[in-house]
Amino acid sequence: MEQDVRDDPRSANDSRMRTPVQSGKEAPVESKPSTRQRWNEAHLSKMATFWLCLASVVVVLILGFTWGGWMTEGGAEKIAQAAAKTAVIERLAPICVAQFSQDPDSLLKLDELNGMTSYQRAQYVQDQGWATISGEEKPDRQVANACTQLIMDMSP
């Protein structure tokens, strides 16, 4: 493709090819595709879809167990057992206090309890048999602790 030298204002030693320009017509402006068009044209591979799904599952599990309040069966069982034990102790401690109140020397024993440490008090309640509930062979230490607290709260 040879150019006509008369039409080209460039010097004779310029070897660049001249690009013809059409007069009267403007060059078409290419529009940038919209986000919606790009979304419709996107095609994920099977491998990318698999990893995306796996990552989504992991994120949901992490969020569920940390912030969502989910727990395992073992964790729920431990919490339920602790709550049940606490409820039983709360129900048995007043029975222990009633047994203390029925003791004819309760005022004398209350004075003895006031002079002891908390560990000695719980042991004293166990030794007196107040923390032994009917049907049980030996007193319960936690019932004795709760009973001691109730007895000390009602003392003048």
Q: If you had to describe this structure to a student in words, what would you say it looks like?
A:
The model has no long low-confidence stretch (mean pLDDT 86). Helix content is 59%, strand content 0%. The protein has helices at residues 35-41, 46-66, 73-102, 106-114, 118-128, 141-154. It has a domain at 79-154. The longest helix is centred in the middle third of the chain and has 30 residues, at 73-102. The chain is mostly helical and 156 residues long. The chain starts with 34 loop residues before the first helix and ends with a helix.
Number of β-strand runs:
0
Structure classification: mainly alpha
Rg measurement, Å: 44 Å
| Estimated helix fraction | 55-70%
**Head-to-tail CA distance between termini:** 118 Å
Q: What are the secondary-structure elements, in order, as H or E? A: HHHHHH
For the sheet with most strands, the description reads:
none
Summed up:
By secondary structure, the protein is mostly helical. Helix content is 59%, strand content 0%.
Give a quick set of tags describing it.
mainly alpha, 156 residues, 6 helices
Architecture blueprint of SSEs:
Elements: H1 35-41, H2 46-66, H3 73-102, H4 106-114, H5 118-128, H6 141-154
Helix pairs in contact: 3-6, 5-6
